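Ticket closed. Logging final result for Penicillin-binding protein 3.
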Amino acid sequence: MKKAWIWFWSVFLVILSGFVFLFWDYWKEGPKTDGEMAKAAFTAYTTNWKNQQFAHMYEQLSLDTKAKVTKDEFVSRYENIYGGIEAKPILVEPLYNGDVVPTEDGKINFHYRIKLDTFVEPISFTGKATLIKETQNDKKDWYIHWNPSFLFPGMQEGDKVRANTLYPKRGEILDRAGRRLATSRIVVDVGIRPDEWSKTPPAGRTQVSKLLQIPLANLMSVVSANAGKSGSFVRIATLPEDDARLQTLQQTASIVLQKKQVRYYPYQAAAAHLVGYTGAISQEEYEKRKDMGYRTSDIVGKAGLEQLFEQQLRGESGGRIAIVGADGTVKKIVAEQPAKNGQPLALTIDATVQQTIYSEFKQDAGTAAAISPATGEVLALVSSPSYDPNAFVLGMSTEEWEKLNDDPGKPLLNRFARGFAPGSTFKPLTAAMGLATGAITPADTVSVKGLHWQKDASWGAYEVTRVSDYGAPVDLKKALVYSDNIYFAKAALSIGEEPFVAQGKQLGFDEAVPIPYPLDPSRLANNGMRNEIQLADSGYGQGEVTMTPLHLALVYSAFVNEGNIVYPSLLQGEQKERYWKREAIPPQVAAIVRDDLVQVMEDPRGTGRGARVPGIRMAGKTGTAELKQKKGEQGQENGWYAVFNVDDPRLLVTMMVEDVRGRGGSHVLDARIKRIFSKLLQGVGA
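Final structure:
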């Protein structure tokens, strides 16, 4: 009997402990009261909110709320609003304070705090949520009675959130006189409403095609791609505000015109390579700049100064987030940050000098630079042929781009940033090197009969060729006046390779020109002088010698400044030294070469006499550089001029025209240089 009782109490205790364990687990883990159940429900809701699990949030809404808004509408509304204001991260914090009990009508209220980082500024606010207890899908629980104020305080049914980027005004690019090289203007976007295109008769469609020079098939393709988008506007072209075609287009069914402000380049092709242009930011550019506040809708500098000074010119975008009523009126500004306009960029460039020089190319390929030789201010940097940067702003068709890109004249190539063989314009530099090192003197003569010369038989078949045999010994002055290749080939050999290269470094070779625009460094040789032949050819600007037009102009400034090379400036107000290279050439040497360059322009046999302007004393040097792959063949010839006015020097121009063979060599530039100096220094023909 005793054993039976022991067994009974043992079984009883096991069963009792099981009930106790189950009760404890229920009591510990499960909500005990309505308040605890409501807290659990709202905590789950705010967690889903923070994680942007909008579909899960919808499942926790009350039946009354679900009757007013579908799941797709609810999810879409959150995604569109948060996406539009770039809300991330989202921090949602439920605010609990003490015991929670239902109100008399059986509801429970909780407050919450929300913080959003937006594209404008961080936004934070508190709100109140009402929960009701009801049964959904056989589950009785607390559900959220949602309304639009959960999105932003004060929002009501029918309201929308409008997010607008406030774009800054891009800084203008100005010349030395305040003339606008880059500014803004109003243009008109021409667009089609695809859903109304069918109302346009065939004749009207054909007329639109012809007016805009867009194939009708392309227009039909645009309409087809956007079919069914009621009220959509599809841009097909952008025209200047004063374009006469707009009057006809305005009267065409389904065509819509919208004005907008865009970048404008008044000097068009004349300054295109220098100023550059702007365009829509690419995905690659956006990825690089998104941490700098850029957006996918931004316009950025694509080339030239527009690209180089993007940060200064762009300014900072602002933004506005507003609650808008059903009638479109703004009910409340949620957040606003005004845009900060970009800063202007003031250049030393003279638009008149730039335009005057560019117009002299007349579509010939070439390049030029102009400086004030006394101050180093860069007055012009020109590349021809060029392009109209406004075409990039307005938008080019595939055909227009291919035509520009495939043009054999290479209008997209920035020639003033590239190095070219300077030909005989280099001879004054060799003269200065030779005089400075004592390798030559002004009185030394070269007596060579005939048009060809070589040092000795070790040169094989290679010879230095000159244009004319003057039948008499040639000294330095005559060598410059006549542009004698043999004289300067012998001078380079007399100088020697190491002193020649060392003197070149003093003149800025193998060094970047100190302006905020990337130019190729000028070179005397690609990988050192290979032999005496290359050194001899270098003496008259051939071999592997290359110079940019600006560097050539700067070196010539030494003949104005007692042997000092002036420090260049492209931006107004720059703090800089007066000279880039002090005593690059001994003063007495610079004076000798300068006087000889005057004779190049004034001597009856001087190669520069054709560009001489009556009333202006000029000094300069012509040059013809031949580009060929091997000895014996005829290569392309480029014609050069480097010239400045001597008395009160105000203008120094270096100019190169490509492919002058059979057209007179460097004399192709005679009349052009003459007109440039006449107009800019005398106002003749202005």
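Residues 2-29 form the longest helix (28 residues). No further action required.
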